[in-house]
Every structure is written in C-alpha cells, then in structure tokens.
Amino acid sequence: MTAPGTFASFDEFYRSQNRQLFHFFKRRVGREDAADLTQQAFTGMLRTGAFERVENPRAYLFRTARNLVIERARRRQRKETGLFPLDEGRDAPVCPDQAWAMEASDLRRGLRRAILAMPRRTRRIFLMHRLKHQTYREIAEEIGIREQGVEYHMMRALARFRKAVAFQRW
C-alpha cells in the first residue's frame, strides 16, 4: 500500500484506487451505478485540482465518494416527496438537443435488444401488429392461432419493453 500523498501522477493514483472505490460504491449503491459514481468521483477530483493540492488524495477521494452517496440518497428522497404539482409547460427544464438524442439512441438500442431477445413467434406477432398495423384477428388468421393467443404474445412483448425502458431510466 502506498503512503498517502506519494503518488507520482494522477494516472498512477487512478489505477491504484479505482478498484477499491468501485467496490466502495458497489456495496452502497449497487453494481449498476457504481461505475458511474466512481468515474464521477475521479473526474471531480481532477477537475477541482484537488489531487495536486491535498496532502492525502486517497482520503479526499473517499470523502468525495461518501458525499456522492449522500447526495444520491437525498436526490432520491426529494424525487419521492413532491409537495407541489409540476406544471410541465412552466417548470420543466430545457434539455439540450444532444442529450435528448443520446437518450433516444440508448432507448432505441435497448428496445432493439428487447425485440431480438423475444421468442420468434412473439417477435413476429409484435412486428405484424406494430409495423404492419394488422389487427389481432388478421394476425390470428395468418398465423393460425386464436385471438387470445395473439393477445398473450403482445402482452409478453410489451412486458419486455417495460423492463427494457425501466432499466434505461435508472
């Protein structure tokens, strides 16, 4: 273990502390968010120039990490407790076009993966209904199953999409 403040460069510091910081976050917030928070902690430290200024960069990094976990918990708590109704037209923040495009691209990739992961018959029925605009009756006649079967496959497909979208949001 290297003594505090004896790192030759930020790169060396990053390589020596990255794994420990990732595990710190993984234990507290889960694997999904741990990588993002790890990157955020290192980026914040580099951006503020703290690495060159502080005597013990590891302690500073882990204090930053604890603060990120606390901030994340507070954000979640605020999100869950809304006192006033949101007026979308007045209160919604304006998101940059690039961010919207990136989110849309991520969503399309997630939905495409969900479609490709569906069983063949479910995927076929879903595409017939959504892309070819066929009714359940038309699909049932073409495939040779009952309308209830078409409905079942559509429910399965939509459930997969709900999971894919829920995964994308957080």
Question: What does this molecule look like?
Answer:
The chain has 170 residues and is an all-alpha fold. It has 2 domains: 10-80; 110-169, Orthogonal Bundle (Arc Repressor Mutant, subunit A). Helices cover 78% and strands 0% of the residues. It contains 9 helices and no strands. The chain is elongated. The mean pLDDT is 85.
Largest sheet: none
Q: Compute the CA-based radius of gyration.
A: 24 Å
The ordered string of helix (H) and strand (E) elements is HHHHHHHHH
Portion of residues in helices? over 70%
Strand segment tally: 0
Percent of residues in beta strands: under 5%
Helical element count? 9
* Number of spatially distinct domains: 2
The low-confidence parts are none
Structural class: mainly alpha
Q: Shape from CA axes?
A: elongated
User: Distance N terminus to C terminus?
Assistant: 35 Å
Mean pLDDT: 85
Describe the structure using short key phrases.
9 helices; mainly alpha; Arc Repressor Mutant, subunit A; 170 residues; 2 domains
Quick summary:
The protein has 170 residues and is an all-alpha fold. The chain has helices at 10-29, 31-48, 50-53, 57-80, 88-91, 97-117, 120-130, 136-143, 147-169.
Spell out the blueprint of helices and strands:
Blueprint (H helix, E strand, L loop, with lengths): L9 H20 L1 H18 L1 H4 L3 H24 L7 H4 L5 H21 L2 H11 L5 H8 L3 H23 L1
